[in-house]
Structure formats: structure tokens, C-alpha cells
Structure to design on (565 residues):
């Protein structure tokens, strides 16, 4: 029986007790999309599962991606057909069945500048791309546009040299919200999920790994979690966890930094996303509510994994690449948010010399270096479900009992079931709960059918129905819900990941930090002093982000797991 998957921050003590006293079948290290997916895969096979995350769910790469659920048009050019095929099938499954409330189709305009050669080349790629879809077809096929047609959809484009365009479809997601929802769905299937819990050592019985030593980052307390198998889903931290375990894995993770800028929607006049070719890769304009996300870059990185920072050169590179096609150039003052993420790319240990990171495959690798330990890295956000399936298969392979195969293809994420019947009821819900229609639409797009739980909070306290920050759609009730159902422990969890005000607001959400601390403090019983300290902690973090020098190539810190704080 599936529960409601609430991750109630007030129950953290009980979670720690369960972790320290129960014996699990599978312990997952890392609460990014791969770890959350792995917890869900294992829990929905009937296994006893625990997941520990050193910071907050999705605080690593899984909140810093381009937020596309896509096959990856550019991987076709690299002949990575298997990856594209699998990713497109995953995209369609997510849009149509597993997470229609979170993963939504989005169109991309691909402007063409070389009259004769480009259209047949790109057109053939898109025919192949569309033909790799499954039978569900939840997103439309591509179309050819004339230059006039392209300018109609995207008046922002400069007409100079524009020969026409292609329009094709992929899908997009709020990556942090999706990761959280996967973790909650795992919890609904009995997984125990704990955050701000860093693995600092692995437990062994003879050769076999039998669990992990975990440090509670809130109290400094150490606890031991026992499990029949431990699965490392630590993204760019994977090599460090392998070192902790004292094992030699068959691959290393190479970090590649990708930067995005966020600009107001009004700065670029277009009713569709856009994709441009750049010298090294591609640049996306991705519609994001009242904003555009524009990026990305792809550069080798060996600095602080926990806080990769964008340099001015990264930002200038994106602006220059965007301005090659725009009639009105974007300027530095248009940029209201910037974020950097690290791709955990897998580098096989072949000794054939380093490839540029743009050329490294995005396929994933699973390893079982010693009994009781499996690890996975690489892959893409889009293929997290397949990654989870493969690593759980590897982790349970030597169990002395039959473990059922993966069933996640048939397990919709929380909020998906019954969505079709709720969408037409927006008007009624708005009346019943006394909130604007737009607020209900906003909630449905973030929580699906669980929106009713947020609306119930408004029913109990009408003040929670008010917007959290002027000019942004989030309601104050969403902060309370983040504590009671989404495991938010600190102000940054709410402003950076449960909502995205950190990247969507010119002040990174600083003006509402105290309000968020007050709303969180009520259910969590924070004193006035604690609320002030939590507010200060967030403001310091914003300040540090602004002033931290960007260093991409200092020697990687050895086992500095404190970096994961
Ligand atoms: C710029 C950029 C753009 C991207 N765009 C896309 C895209 O559009 N579409 C797509 O499909 N993919 C995209 N990707 C790839 C995708 O985002 C990643 O493949 C995916 O998010 C990786 O998830 P993960 O769970 O493996 O790693 P992470 O999200 O980094 O999770 C690893 C977690 O492990 C935790 N951890 C580490 N050490 C420990 C420890 N000792 N104890 C406990 N926890 C620990 C970390 O805190 C972290 O939260 C992009 C990546 C980047 C960088």
C-alpha cells in the first residue's frame, strides 16, 4: 500500500531513530534525481530502503540543469543513437503517464542561416529524432518554417541572413521539484528519506559492505545505518565516496561546468523556446514562467564541487552567443539570475588521452567494485529511471532471494494520478478555496493532484493564500507545505529549491527571507532568535554566492566531505 509520502521536517528525529535501528535491504547515498529514482525503484520492488543526502534533496546537479527532458538533438550528431532513443522514450513516458503535472512539452525554434545545406541536414536529423519516439506521441512532430514564419514566432530574431527555421518539440521540468517528487513517491512506498546526513565511512563485514557511517550535519552526531547493499548515487562526489570505501571503481567522474543565465521574458520577444548552434555545442533559450533560462556552457572543472560559481567570462560567452541572432542584444543588466552546475560525466579509465567534455558520452555506467556495494554515474536527468533500474539490478544481484524486476514504468509520481479529472475543475477549486484561478493553475503545475493539500492549508488560514513575494506566483502556503510535506529544514531549501526565487528574483529572494523564516518557524517551533539566525544564514549564502571568486581549476579537495555541507 502506498502512503502519502509526506516528508515532514518535524519528524526528523523519528527518521534518525529508524535509520539507526532498522536494517535495510538497500541504502542509497545521494538525494539527486539518480538517488531518489534508485530509492523509488528499490522501494517499489518491495525492498526496505533508506536514502541519505548530505545537504538538501536536489542540492547538487539536480537543481542546476537546463531543465529539459529531451532526447538531445545534438547527440544524434555524435551517433549516440541508443542514448537518444532511450531518452525520447523516457520523455514520452514522463509526459504522458509518470509525471504529466511536472514534465510538459515545449517547442524549440531552430533558426537556419545557410539556405541550401542546412535545412536538409537539420530536417533529416529531426525526422530521425521524431521517428525514435514511441507510440504514445505526447508531443507533436517537427515542422518547417519560412523566414517569415520564424519571425512571426520569434520577432526577437534578427532578420539578417535568416533563411528559415525548424520547429520541434521536447519537454521541460522543474528539476528540483521533480527530484523531490520522486523522493516523496519513494517515501510513499515506505522508503526512509533523510537529509543533511553525510556518509563519512562505509561499514564492512569481512569483504562485504554492510552499511554506512553517517554524520548528522545538524547536530554533528554520528550514526550507523545497516543495509544488505549500499548504492552510491553521489554524482560528481562519486570518486570521493569510492575513496571513502577504499575501492577502485572501473571509472572516474569528470566534472564539466555548465552555466545558465536567467533574463526577463520581456527581454526576448518569442512565443517558443529556441536552440542555436554554437562553435562547441548548442545554446538554448528555455521559456521559464515570466523568464527565459539561457545556456549553457561546457568547461572542465576541478574546483569546489559544492558551490560551482559562474565567472564573468561564462556570462559574457552566453550573452555573446545569444546576441549573434537577436535583433535587440541582451545586456548584462538584463541578467537577473545566474546558476552553475556540474555534469557528472563518466570517463572510462582507458588512458587514451582526455576527450573534451562536450564529446564525452552522456550514457551511464554501473559498477559493483566489492560485494554489497554498487555505484552509478553519468547519464542524464531524462534517463534517471533507467539508471535507477540498472543500479538496483546490480545491487540485488547477489541477494540470496528472488527480487522482483523494476516496475517504475507503471508507477506514476505523486500528484499524477487523477490529474485529468482535476484540471477541468480549476474554476470550482478557485471558488471553493477563495483563491484566484491563476493560483490554482500554478499549484496544479507544481503539485498535480496534491495541490488540494496546499489549498487545505489556505482553508485553515486565509493569510496563507497571499503571494509570498510581489510579482511571483508562489503562495505563502507553499512555505508551510514545504516544511510539513517536503522536508524543508532551512530557508535556503525553500528559496532555492521548493520555490525557485533564488534564480527568478533579482535579489535572489533576500527580501522575503525573514518572511520565509517566520512561516517555517511556526510549525518548526523556532524562537525569534532562531528565526533571525536562519534568515541571516540565507542572506550570508546569497552574499557569498555574489562575492565568491570563481575558481574552476584548483586541485580537487581530497576527502573534504565537509565540502558537501
Ligand atoms: C548545466 C547542466 C545542464 C544539464 N541539463 C540537462 C538537461 O537539460 N536534461 C538532462 O536530461 N540532463 C541534464 N543535465 C544532466 C543532469 O542534470 C544530471 O545528469 C543529473 O542531475 C545528475 O543527478 P545525480 O543524482 O546523479 O547527481 P546530483 O544531483 O549531484 O546528486 C548527488 C547527490 O549526492 C549527494 N552526496 C554526495 N556525497 C555524499 C555523501 N558522502 N553522503 C550523502 N550524500 C552525498 C550530494 O549532496 C548530491 O545531492 C545537465 C547537467 C548540467 C550540469
Amino acid at each position: 500500500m502506498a502512503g502519502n509520502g509526506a516528508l515532514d521536517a518535524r519528524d526528523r528525529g523519528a527518521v534518525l531513530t529508524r535509520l539507526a535501528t532498522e536494517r535495510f535491504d538497500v541504502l542509497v547515498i545521494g538525494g539527486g534525481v539518480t538517488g531518489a529514482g534508485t530509492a523509488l525503484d528499490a522501494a517499489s520492488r518491495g525492498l526496505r530502503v533508506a536514502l541519505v543526502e548530505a545537504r538538501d534533496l536536489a542540492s547538487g546537479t539536480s537543481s542546476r540543469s537546463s531543465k529539459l527532458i529531451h532526447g538531445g538533438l545534438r547527440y544524434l550528431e555524435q551517433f549516440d543513437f541508443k542514448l537518444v532513443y532511450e531518452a525520447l522514450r523516457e520523455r514520452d513516458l514522463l509526459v504522458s503517464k509518470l509525471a504529466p503535472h511536472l514534465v510538459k512539452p515545449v517547442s524549440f525554434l531552430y533558426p537556419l542561416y545557410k539556405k541550401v545545406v542546412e535545412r536538409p541536414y537539420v530536417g533529416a536529423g529531426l525526422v530521425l529524432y521524431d521517428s525514435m519516439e514511441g507510440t504514445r506521441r505526447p508531443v507533436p512532430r517537427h515542422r518547417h518554417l519560412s523566414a517569415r514564419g520564424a519571425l512571426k514566432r520569434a520577432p526577437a530574431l534578427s532578420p539578417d541572413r535568416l533563411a528559415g527555421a525548424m520547429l520541434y518539440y521536447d519537454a521541460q521540468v522543474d528539476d528540483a521539484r521533480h527530484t523531490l517528487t520522486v523522493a516523496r513517491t519513494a517515501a510513499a512506498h515506505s522508503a526512509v528519506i533523510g537529509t543533511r546526513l553525510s556518509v563519512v565511512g562505509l561499514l564492512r563485514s569481512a569483504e562485504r559492505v554492510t552499511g554506512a557511517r553517517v554524520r548528522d550535519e545538524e547536530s554533528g552526531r554520528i550514526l550507523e545505518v545497516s543495509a544488505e547493499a549500499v548504492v552510491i548515487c553521489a554524482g560528481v562526489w562519486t570518486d570521493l565516496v569510492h575513496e571513502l570505501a577504499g575501492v577502485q571503481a572501473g571509472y572516474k567522474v569528470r566534472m564539466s561546468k555548465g552555466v545558465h543565465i536567467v533574463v526577463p521574458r520581456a527581454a526576448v520577444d518569442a512565443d517558443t523556446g529556441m536552440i542555436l548552434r554554437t562553435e562547441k555545442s548548442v545554446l538554448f533559450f528555455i521559456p521559464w514562467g515570466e523568464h527565459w533560462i539561457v545556456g549553457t556552457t561546457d568547461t572542465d572543472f576541478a574546483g569546489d564541487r559544492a558551490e560551482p560559481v559562474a565567472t564573468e567570462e561564462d556570462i559574457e560567452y552566453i550573452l555573446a552567443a545569444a546576441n549573434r541572432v537577436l535583433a535587440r542584444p541582451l545586456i548584462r543588466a538584463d541578467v537577473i539570475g545566474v546558476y552553475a552546475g556540474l555534469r557528472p560525466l563518466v570517463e572510462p579509465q582507458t588512458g587514451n588521452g582526455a576527450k573534451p567534455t562536450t564529446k564525452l558520452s552522456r550514457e551511464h555506467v554501473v559498477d559493483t567494485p566489492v560485494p554489497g556495494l554498487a555505484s552509478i554515474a553519468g547519464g542524464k536527468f531524462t534517463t534517471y529511471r533507467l539508471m535507477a533500474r540498472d543500479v538496483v539490478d546490480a545491487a540485488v544481484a547477489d541477494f540470496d532471494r528472488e527480487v522482483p524486476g523494476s516496475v517504475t514504468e507503471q508507477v506514476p509520481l505523486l500528484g499524477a494520478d487523477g490529474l485529468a479529472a482535476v484540471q477541468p475543475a480549476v474554476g470550482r477549486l478557485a471558488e471553493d478555496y477563495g483563491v484566484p484561478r491563476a493560483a490554482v493553475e500554478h499549484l496544479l503545475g507544481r503539485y498535480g493532484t496534491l495541490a488540494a493539500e496546499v489549498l487545505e492549508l489556505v482553508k485553515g488560514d486565509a493569510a496563507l493564500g497571499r503571494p509570498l513575494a510581489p510579482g511571483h506566483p508562489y503562495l505563502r502556503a507553499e512555505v508551510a507545505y514545504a516544511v510539513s510535506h517536503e522536508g524543508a529544514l532551512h530557508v535556503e531549501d525553500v528559496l532555492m529549491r521548493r520555490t525557485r526565487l533564488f534564480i527568478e528574483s533579482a535579489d535572489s529572494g533576500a527580501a522575503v527571507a525573514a518572511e520565509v523564516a517566520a512561516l517555517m518557524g511556526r510549525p518548526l517551533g523556532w524562537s525569534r532568535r532562531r528565526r533571525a539566525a536562519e534568515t541571516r544564514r540565507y542572506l550570508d549564502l546569497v552574499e557569498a554566492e555574489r562575492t565568491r571568486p570563481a575558481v574552476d581549476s584548483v586541485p580537487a579537495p581530497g576527502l573534504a566531505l565537509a565540502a558537501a555541507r
Remarks:
- DSSP finds 19 helices and 18 strands in the chain.
- Residues 528-547 form the longest helix (20 residues).
- The chain has a mean pLDDT of 92.
